[in-house]
């Protein structure tokens, strides 16, 4: 397995719209394994292929504390969205930044598993939030797009400063906020 580099906002490659996966082979499984390794080491609870500069519709998620619930969603489509809930989100591509985002509380998703089999599931809670955040990535959208332009300007400045200073890049994360 290999740990992949995670693109950081405002890298324009994060704005790429990912294309559907059409071939379900050993190479796909290898790339999914690399994404899990990258996500676990970050550490985060979700990662979209777009974040590692791979522009196909692949998402990995594990919201468990002990890394026991790896989930792969390939070519996900939201069939139903219900309810509204506000929660604090973070993102591995926007390190050290956390803010409130409104999402659907419950979603129904159709997707392919890593073998190419079509599946449908109803999700709620953190898994539903995480999936919506990651599907946004596949569409070239980031959680900071839901914030005001003023906030985005501040975030860009803060990230630039962090990158300049390096070492200071390990911004203290609030333990409660998921990094997706
Ligand atoms: Ni993210």
Task: Report a brief summary of the structure.
This protein is α+β, with helices and mostly antiparallel strands. It has helices spanning 26-41, 125-138, 149-165, and strands spanning 46-48, 58-61, 71-82, 85-91, 94-103, 106-112, 118-124. It has a five-stranded antiparallel β-sheet. A two-stranded antiparallel ribbon has the order 4-5.
Structure commentary:
This protein is α+β, with helices and mostly antiparallel strands and 180 residues long. Helix content is 26%, strand content 28%. The chain has three helices and seven strands. The strands form two sheets. The protein has a five-stranded antiparallel beta sheet. Strands 4-5 form a two-stranded antiparallel ribbon. The longest helix is centred in the C-terminal third of the chain and has 17 residues. The model has no long low-confidence stretch (mean pLDDT 94). The structure holds nickel (II) ion. The site of nickel (II) ion (NI) has 6 residues, from helix 2.
List the helices and strands and how they pair.
Elements: H1 26-41, E1 46-48, E2 58-61, E3 71-82, E4 85-91, E5 94-103, E6 106-112, E7 118-124, H2 125-138, H3 149-165
This protein binds nickel (II) ion (NI).
Q: Any idea what the CATH architecture is? A: Alpha-Beta Complex
The small-molecule ligands in this entry are: nickel (II) ion
Main-sheet strand order equals 1-2-3-6-7
Q: How large, in whole angstroms, is the Cα Rg?
A: 16 Å
Q: What is the N-to-C succession of helices and strands?
A: HEEEEEEEHH
Shape: globular
CATH class: Alpha Beta
Task: Please give the count of helices.
Answer: 3
- What about the largest sheet? 5 strands, antiparallel
- Please tell me the total number of domains: 1
Mean pLDDT: 94
Class computed from helices, strands and strand pairing: alpha+beta
